[in-house]
Structures are given as C-alpha cells and as structure tokens.
Amino acid sequence: MSTTPRTLSAVAVALAVAAGVTGCATSEDSPAGASASGTNGSRTVASTNAASADAASTITMKGLDRFYHQRLDWGPCKDPDLTKTGTQCASVTVPLDYAAPKGPTLSLTVSRLKATGTDRERRGILQTNPGGPGGHGLGMPAQLRAKMTPRVAAAYDVIGMDTRGLGESSPLDCGLDGISWFRGAGFDRASFDRVAQKSADDARKCDAKYGDRLAHYSTRNIARDVDVIRGALGERRTSWFGQSYGTYLGVVYAQMFPRKVDRLVLDSAMNPRDYGLRMFQAMGPANEKALDDLARWAAPRDGEYHLGKTPAAVRATVENLVRRSANRPIEVGGDRLDHESLPFVLYFLGTDDVDNAEYARTLRLLVDAAAGRPVEPSQRLKGLLDAMFRTGPQETGTGRDYASTLAVLCADGTAPGDAEWYRKAIEKARPKQPVFGPFHNAPMPCGWWKQKPREQRTEIDNALPALQIQATGDTRTTYEQGLGMHRAMRGSKLVTVPVRTHAVFVGYPNACADKAVNDYLLTGELPTEDYTCPRDQAPNHS
C-alpha cells in the first residue's frame, strides 16, 4: 500500500471499531512501575481526582517485576527505511495472560526516536498508536517527529510499537485469504449469504489455530503492555499521542493507570461508549455525506471528469457503477471489483477533502473500466486493490493484519451471531445509504467468535487533562463520536477543525491544529476553552 500518511495502514485505521460490552473498569496503577526512576521536568498535570475506581477488573498487576524491570537492548530496526530516520528498535517481553504472569509470554517490538535536546530539556517519553486496532506503529515516531517543533522534539523520546499479535510483535496468522467483514453485502440474498458465511469461516479459522489464546488480545491487555513498556524504559509517567483507535487505547490506559499519565493527546477520537458495532454503523451516513460533498465538488468540473453536470447526476453515476458491478465486475489492474469490494475502494477515497481531485479521477477511471476501456490504476488505487485482493504472507500481509484486528475487536466485545440481524440492519439502512449501508452493516466475525471477552469493557469517566483534535467531516470517527469522547473525558479541551479528514495532526495541513498539539506537549497547558480552527486552504484541486 502507499505509505503516505493518509494511506498508511489504511485497512487497520479504517477498522478502528469493535463490538462493546457494558461494564465498569478499575484502576491498576502498578506498584512495580511506581518504583521506576523519575521523568525529567517538574510540571505535573495529573488530577488527584483523575479517574473513577475500576472495580470490575479481575486482574491485578502483581508478580510482574521481571517484566517491568527488564533491560531493553536498542539497535537497528528490521525495516531499513526506519533506520534511515534514526529510529531504533528493541524487544519487550510481556505475559500473554496478565492473570498468569508465570505462563506463556509474547515478544513485542517497540521503536524509539530519542529526544533531540539535552537532559535538562528532556521531559520524558511520548508513547503512540496510529490506529486500528491493527495499525503498524513502529513508524509512528518518525511521522510525529516530522510535525513537532524543535522544542517539542527536544523534550520527548517518541515511542512506537506493534501491539501484541501484529507485525513484529508475535504476530497472529489465522490463514485468512481475504477481508471478510470489510466488504459490502450486496443487493441480493446470495451475496449477503456469501459475506455472512465468510465472516463465520474466518472466526472458525482463527479459533482452530489459536483457541483460548485469542481471549488475551484485548485493549485492556494492550494497555497493560503499554505500562510494562513505560516501566521498562525507567519512566514514572508517560505522555500519549493516539489517533483513531489509538485514542481509545489511550483513554483505557488512562482509566486503568491514571497516576502514570502525563500529557494526553487524542486525535480523531471515537465515543468510548459506542466503541464497537454501533460506531462502525455510524460511519455509513458520514461516508454518504462525503460522497455528496464530492458530488458537489465534481459537478462544476464535468468538463474535466465527465461524472455528471449536477451533484445528483454525479451521485447517480456512482450508485449506477456499484449496481453495474454486481452484474459485471469491473476489471482493473488484473483484479475484478464487484458490488462487495467496490465500496471498500470508495470508502478510502472519500477520507480527505484535499483528495477530491484524486477521488474524481479514480471514479472516471472506474467508469471507463466498467465500459470495457483499458485503464491503468493509480498508485493509490493499486494500493487499495492490493489490500483487498493480495493478502498472503508473500504479498501485502493484509490477511495477517486483519487477523490481529479481529483478535482485538473480538477480545474486547461481542457482536450479534445471527446473520438475519445484519440482513435486517442492511435493509433498514439501504434507502438513505445506498452505497455504504450494505458495507457498514455487514456481518461481523465477532458474532461467530468462540472465545468471549474475559473482562468487561472499560468505562471511561474521568477528569484527566487531555487535548482532543477532531475534524467535523471525519468519516471514520465522526464528529458526533468525538463529542462522546469529549463528554467522557471531562478534563479534556476540544479543538475542532472544519474539514473532512481523519488523523489530523499527521495527515492534514492545518497550522492551527499543529500549534495546539505542539503547544500542549511543550507546556502542558490546555486551552482555557474549546475552540474551532480556521482551515488553511480550500481543498486541493490537483
């Protein structure tokens, strides 16, 4: 796939959802971690009334000294491109099951870009997550460093990681040969049944290979891994930058370990109470709106793209394209896009308003291909086709990433296991969501997952200080979802960016949002009130 910020780990970032179960959470501030050496810098931002009690937890952070006090040996990363950025990598050992610390272990790979300043300028560590679950995180430090001011870069060692079961961290591989859940369920019963059966088959394959190990890949256990890394790095506290699913992981960590949190940045946040199938369903209307936005942009440019002279005509072109692909798949780049796979491509093309021209060009290309004309896919389209169709270990590895995504989602919560439930949801959504309704209501493999969650979902409710950045037109974690996070994190301040994008700081040009993040990381001072940034520029037309 393309490695630009907007397409990095595209499948994983888009799959930043899981089916949630209700429940409370409990604080797990670790006695072992508390004995670690202090962080440079004198200012503290933690609230003494930071988080509510976590009475539902069945796991305590005891008997873990050997993990918290392990030595990390830093050296070159396996990826030579990371080494070129100055990033170093190391392995961290964590227990598979924190309730049985003497049992099997996992080896996690973490990355680091050291602070550029002196010991006096250095504040501590900034741990990160790019989204997902299932987003590869070893390259995140270099991406963040590129957006940091020199003074912020001087203050933090930026830490990335591949979370348990992913990439270079004891990866899971269920032998999945494609993405079952992340596809449209089509127009007829046969297509729906095919997608539902594939979801059930993927769940069966993972269970057959890993069995009850799958129950240990939850967000709560990943948060415990984050704290072990903090302790192994010799830090009493950690700052956090998370985007998309990384916001959820960050607030779960903050709820579980409130006294270990320094500065907390949440970029493109979800509503923690909707974390799950409801959040995925909420993306449907947002993506239909993005298509309408594109139609309004493309209609005055019909002379260039020939998609329709009115917004209604452009939308009709897209809807007809999807319908035609049900009868005759679109052949492009050696692949065949049908009504199940085409919405996957459209979903990603609509992420950013600065990509309107690319979206329109790709639609024109697909219309031409559907008419039997020879076309050459763009780099962006080729990356999306690779993600959908080339999933084996010698290709993109999407099948393995998808397995790790499912492991986290299904360890975190349940989903309906009745195919008819999804069919009814699709038909209810279809009239107002003709393109994305069958996509965002498709059968979820967690419904057929044998290993049920071992712990209740973490209830997010605290007054910890946090800076939240949210785009009004986000098609992944919608603005309404972000408001839910803002309410749950009562000490947060919200910076709104009036654009269509996802993952603002790393992937979108907005000087106001960049300044908000850098100022907060440098000083620890939150804005006195929520505010809205101006946009830097009109959407890019090239």
TrEMBL record:
<dbReference type="InterPro" id="IPR000073">
    <property type="entry name" value="AB_hydrolase_1"/>
</dbReference>
<dbReference type="InterPro" id="IPR051601">
    <property type="entry name" value="Serine_prot/Carboxylest_S33"/>
</dbReference>
<protein>
    <submittedName>
        <fullName>Alpha/beta hydrolase</fullName>
    </submittedName>
</protein>
<dbReference type="Pfam" id="PF08386">
    <property type="entry name" value="Abhydrolase_4"/>
</dbReference>
<dbReference type="InterPro" id="IPR013595">
    <property type="entry name" value="Pept_S33_TAP-like_C"/>
</dbReference>
<feature type="signal peptide">
    <location>
        <begin position="1"/>
        <end position="27"/>
    </location>
</feature>
<dbReference type="InterPro" id="IPR029058">
    <property type="entry name" value="AB_hydrolase_fold"/>
</dbReference>
<dbReference type="Pfam" id="PF00561">
    <property type="entry name" value="Abhydrolase_1"/>
</dbReference>
<dbReference type="GO" id="GO:0016787">
    <property type="term" value="F:hydrolase activity"/>
</dbReference>
<comment type="similarity">
    <text>Belongs to the peptidase S33 family.</text>
</comment>
<feature type="domain" description="Peptidase S33 tripeptidyl aminopeptidase-like C-terminal">
    <location>
        <begin position="440"/>
        <end position="533"/>
    </location>
</feature>
<feature type="domain" description="AB hydrolase-1">
    <location>
        <begin position="130"/>
        <end position="313"/>
    </location>
</feature>
<keyword id="KW-0732">Signal</keyword>
<keyword id="KW-0378">Hydrolase</keyword>
<feature type="region of interest" description="Disordered">
    <location>
        <begin position="25"/>
        <end position="52"/>
    </location>
</feature>
